[in-house]
């Protein structure tokens, strides 16, 4: 490892590895790249512990387009990330998302979101109660007023497969990955100059990228900066179903979607099982090392809701559970990507609030463009830049799960 790099990336999970990949894939970028990751096993990374899904059903055009690009990358991932004949398969399941609405406000939101999605070319349809019942006969829909279903470009995939694919290709293209931890960041006026590693080495940095997930605020503070990102716990449950409804759908070859109940409880197929979760009743910031599942959420919230929604979800049994962290942006629950307005060689790629995996490809490409060209080229991410944090100006996104 050298003592100086053009770009130092703090965090090597899906965001950091995507930035490294896009930089080293760009022939206009001729610099050196170092990725610092303290735990290359990634066992507690938000990437590894996520529900591994992607959707285009957002309310803001930029978020729709970010996911449309992510879906394109997933389709072409094996070809893009091929290294020495190894073509990583993300095993994409195009199950789609199904949003259910049973209040006037929810119905209005789905209709408004649908107009945005259609304008962006997303393959999403709205269904009335009868159309929903015909498509998914296992559901009880008497209370449902409207449903929104993604027919293509949405589903779930191998989360660590994406991360390791980006990492392996980035390394093959010349990026260096080191197992270490950034403990200090040097500044000279309005420029970051270096990082100090736990091993004791000081590395000069031309540009620093903060890709440290739920620890984003800790990294920013080392440079004397602030970002409103904190770890929020989310528990996922895998359950077995005595009488599975998978295969009963009258669309998409019988495959069930990722269903979001009006209550916020969601579930989707996971092999022969189902994966489920819910918004926590209380959602405080947690310690960065607190990964204890909230076991009571299944019995108290998830199971009663699913049992009411489908007779076939009455007899279910938890077979696994785990907790992961959202890198939660407390201002507006949306990604923060871009340069600090004063310390311009400090770039944020943070605050994805549960959407980092699906937004990783667009983020990696966008950050690489900022570094290489000084501006965005393919997709303008200025709307989600750091300036809105300084101005306390939330970026509105109504379709946050």
What would you say about this model in short?
It is built from nine helices and 18 strands.
What would the average pLDDT be, to the nearest integer? 97
Category by helix and strand content: alpha/beta
At the first level of CATH, the class of the largest domain is Alpha Beta
- What radius of gyration results from the CA coordinates? 21 Å
Give the helices and strands as they follow along the chain: EHEEHEHEHEEHEEEEHEEEEHEEEHH
Residue share in helices? 25-40%
What's the end-to-end separation, in Å?
Answer: 41 Å
Tally of individual helices? 9
GO molecular function: oxidoreductase activity
GO biological process, one term: mitochondrial respiratory chain complex I assembly
GO cellular component, one term: cytoplasm
Pfam family, one: DAO
Task: Walk me through what this model shows.
The chain is of the alpha/beta class and about 400 residues long. It has two domains: about 5-60 and about 160-225 and about 330-390, FAD/NAD(P)-binding domain; about 95-155 and about 230-330, 2-Layer Sandwich (D-Amino Acid Oxidase, Chain A, domain 2). The protein contains nine helices and 18 strands. Strands 1, 2, 8, 9, 10, 11, 17 and 18 form an eight-stranded mixed sheet that branches. A hairpin with a 5-residue loop joins strand 13 (about 260) and strand 14 (about 265-270). Helix 1 runs parallel beside helix 5 (about 160-170), helix 1 runs parallel beside helix 8 (about 355-375) and helix 2 (about 60-80) packs across helix 8. The radius of gyration is 21 Å and the shape is globular. The mean pLDDT is about 95.
């Amino acid at each position: 490892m050298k003592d100086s790099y053009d770009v130092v990336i703090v965090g090597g999970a899906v965001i950091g590895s995507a930035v490294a990949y896009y930089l080293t894939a760009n022939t206009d970028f001729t610099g050196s790249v170092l990725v610092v990751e303290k735990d290359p096993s990634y066992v507690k990374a938000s990437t590894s512990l996520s529900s591994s899904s992607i959707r285009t059903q957002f309310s803001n055009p930029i978020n729709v387009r970010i996911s449309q690009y992510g879906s394109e990358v997933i389709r072409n991932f094996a070809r893009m990330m091929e290294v020495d004949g190894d073509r990583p398969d993300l095993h994409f399941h195009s199950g789609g998302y199904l949003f259910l609405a049973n209040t006037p406000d929810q119905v209005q939101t789905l209709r408004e979101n649908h107009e945005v999605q259609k304008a962006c070319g997303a393959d999403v349809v709205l269904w009335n109660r009868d159309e929903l019942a015909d498509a998914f006969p296992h559901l009880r829909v008497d209370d449902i007023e409207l449903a929104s279903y993604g027919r293509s470009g949405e589903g779930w995939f191998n989360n660590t497969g994406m991360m390791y694919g980006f990492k392996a290709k980035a390394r093959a293209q010349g990026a260096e990955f080191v197992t270490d931890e950034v403990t200090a960041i040097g500044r000279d006026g309005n420029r970051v100059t270096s990082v100090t590693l736990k091993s004791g080495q000081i590395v000069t940095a031309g540009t620093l990228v903060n890709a440290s997930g739920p620890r984003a605020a800790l990294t920013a503070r080392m440079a004397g900066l602030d970002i409103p990102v904190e770890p929020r716990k989310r528990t996922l449950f895998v359950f077995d179903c005595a009488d599975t409804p998978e295969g009963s759908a009258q669309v998409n070859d019988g495959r069930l979607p990722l269903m979001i109940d009006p209550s916020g409880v969601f579930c989707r197929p996971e092999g022969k099982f189902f994966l489920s979760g819910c918004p926590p009743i209380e959602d405080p910031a947690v310690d960065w090392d607190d990964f204890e599942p909230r076991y009571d959420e299944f019995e108290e919230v998830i199971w009663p809701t699913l049992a009411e929604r489908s007779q076939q979800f009455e007899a279910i049994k938890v077979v696994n559970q785990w907790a992961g962290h959202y890198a939660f942006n407390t201002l507006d629950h949306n990604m923060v990507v871009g340069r600090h307005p004063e310390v311009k060689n400090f770039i944020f790629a943070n605050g994805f609030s549960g959407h980092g995996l699906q937004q990783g490809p667009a983020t990696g490409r966008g950050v690489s463009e900022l570094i290489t060209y000084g501006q965005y080229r393919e997709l303008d991410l200025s709307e989600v830049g750091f300036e809105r944090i300084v101005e306390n100006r939330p970026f509105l996104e109504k379709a946050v799960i």
